Batch of 3 targets.
Target 1
Amino acid sequence: MGYKIQDSDIGILRNAGVSADDIKHCVKVAKKALEIAEQTKANVDMELVGRGALFHDLGKAKTHAIEHGKIGAELGKALGLPEEITAIMEKHIRGGLTEEEARELGLPIKNYTLKKLEERIVIYADRLVDIITDGIVEIKDESEAETRFEEILRTYPKYGKNEKTLNRYLGYHREIQGLMKK
């Protein structure tokens, strides 16, 4: 695997004021993202996946509102995190918004779409961990969240949000599952 979640990074989250529950979520997302990245057999920057996933919700130290991605990226920059990681933090909201969606949500108008496979793995892992841990969908084990991913997102608006977001997440699911089957 090559990359292991660092206690010092968890300390950064804690020192920034991220709650224990949110840190627990971030660690689960990082572990799931690393597991997925390993299974894809793709040429993936494992440190970017691990740290991007771990820090994706840094902005929740200040707010749980939709702008937590933007705020987290600003905090990350101030802490000296690499731009590739702060980009994941900023763009993870709803899986990478278009300029039009950003405008509709009152976020700074720019293109937040996900360009790198590492970014898409983090976002996919985040959605899976939500499904696995929220307790809304009854699943027997973690793998069921992956096998039922499309059905769950279509059935539970909390996960699919709206048509654009749903289609984006389904695209990531299909892409990443396709890479995992090789």
Note: The radius of gyration is 15 Å.
Target 2
Amino acid sequence: MDYKNKIKDFYEGKLNQEEVREFLRFLESAEAEKELNREIIQLWVSDVKNEQIQWDQQKLWHKIISKRKEDSEKQIKKKPFLRKLDSSTWTKVAAAVLIFGLVAFYFLENRVNQNVQESPLVEQQFITKSNAKGKKTKIVLEDGSEVYLNSESSIRYPNDFKENRNISLEGEAYFRVAKDSIHPFTVDAKGVLTTALGTSFNISTFHSDEMVTVTLLTGKVKLNQEGKDGFIELNPGEESFLSSFIPVLEKYQVSGVDKILWTKGILKFQDASLFEMKEILERWYGVEIFVKGQPKELRASGVFDPQESLENVLKVMGETLEFEFEMEDQMITINF
């Protein structure tokens, strides 16, 4: 066997599995003993045979040096002088150490690959549901819970949702949670966590300052901030306006029914400014609204039935906020 080329091919990964076995058999042969120090070969061949494939270079060197020390002491007893190792002997020792490491790596890699094949890692899969402007949908989850997803909103949840009831929300959604005392239902909205067992609540992240509004309709929910210990509980008709960075958790009384009128297609403004109205109408009707001139500091209220036209909404709101408007396809211009 061309010993030097075999080592080179082994190091470069050019040997197939059968050639590797042949190479290992060679290393146990008498021919190999002539090439390498006999004691060194015995050290690593016994380990490979026993499949002790963890590569510990420091431990191996310790065993090598100890073995050489034993042999040297024997030589001292036999001869009046200590024979020094020549460079060729230490070259053989280094080669043996290198081969042992490579052989160990080969078997370790094979075993790891086998384990991966036998027990493949299953990557968590997620489902995302999104709505564009002007679109609202109702989603029934695997556990029977219902989600009413508002325009320009999205939810993300694991595909094994029945066992892992965790949802991430962007925008606004109304949740009607199926009861399950074993698997809590948690919604993460910008770091604000809402947890329930069986209840209904509305969550909105439609705030430019990273605030989150949670309104409870039925049951009870627990609110806490991601990574923090404090929490508050909401009862029906209570709401909290909070974020992940506000230190104080507070709640107050509201009309929960009014907060979910959007799920029935009813548009309601309550003491809204022009820019609050603009943001809602853009999302509700899927349009772009441009404002020209200087708006007055006025606020307006109004309730509009399902299927109410945008033109009629603008006419009613314009009377209170004192503006005129022009409509061209999906672009609206409000003039002051």
Note: The longest strand covers residues 212-218.
Target 3
Amino acid sequence: MFRALRMDKPDGEFHLDFVELEDGELPPVGDADNPEVVVDVEYSTVNYKDALAITDSSPIIRSWPMVPGIDLAGTVASSSDPNVPVGQRVVVNGWGVGEDSWGGLAQRARVRGAWTVPLPDGMSTAEAMAVGTAGYTSILCVLALEDHQVTPDSGPVLVTGAAGGVGSVAVALLAGLGYEVHASTGRMEESDYLTALGATSIVERSELDEPGSRPLARTRWAGAVDAVGSHTLANVLAQVQPEGCVAACGLAQGMDLMTTVAPFILRGVTLRGVHSVFVPQARRLEAWRRLDKDLDRRLLASMTTKVGLDQVPVIADEVLAGQVRGRCVVDVHA
């Protein structure tokens, strides 16, 4: 038996319950061409997408019933995949886990072997979930900036939504790599926190979140990691220097983007979309290698809160209300 947080809509009415399940109740996810593994989950996390699902605030879930949790880390308990041995420590995120197939907010999970990434030897399962999809997305954004030759010598880089999960890890990573990091937040009380992560300048959200700004403005940044979208992203694009790059990965302010072609055709700015769901395995392996190498564990610990499975519904509300700083790790056995 194992414990899980399970959601259902049997009659169109949303239900969220803690349940005890047997391994045989884990839905199949593979076939002859896509062998499965069962993971003893040790830790998960609560991301923005998880919070939307758990509070039934957005149609995230595409199959019912569902165990939410787009992240999990643990040890392989059984495997039909010759490339994923029993006893291997793995991290899983993306691939529709927690949306199409049961996710990580449970003590056991069945996933396809091809979805797993072996954890670097120097990283614990708890640290992997302190990173989670948010931190993993952050390193993908850093790699995107590097792909477009935005280096520490290019000039300052901006991180929007800096006190959130993606933003906190992005600030720490970029600062650790030698970038001058400007951190944008609507929670100015978090200025000391962001400075401790490595930010050299705090930009108040109100400077960037108003609609109707000019198509081009005075250049301020060589690049940016944007987790906000909407008017903020449009205003950031207007202030990126020639040949700069903005890695866009979020929509906290909204999905809309009212901008012009001016930054792209007059300054050669690149808008680089970054996703975390269907990333090829080689890029995933590189991302986790870089996280192991470049992310300061002390800073990671300073931005992380650990909770038990029972606390997840409350944390989900707090995430949507913008009340959670940094990362929240879920010990599924606590």
Note: The chain has two domains: 2-119+303-331, 133-273.
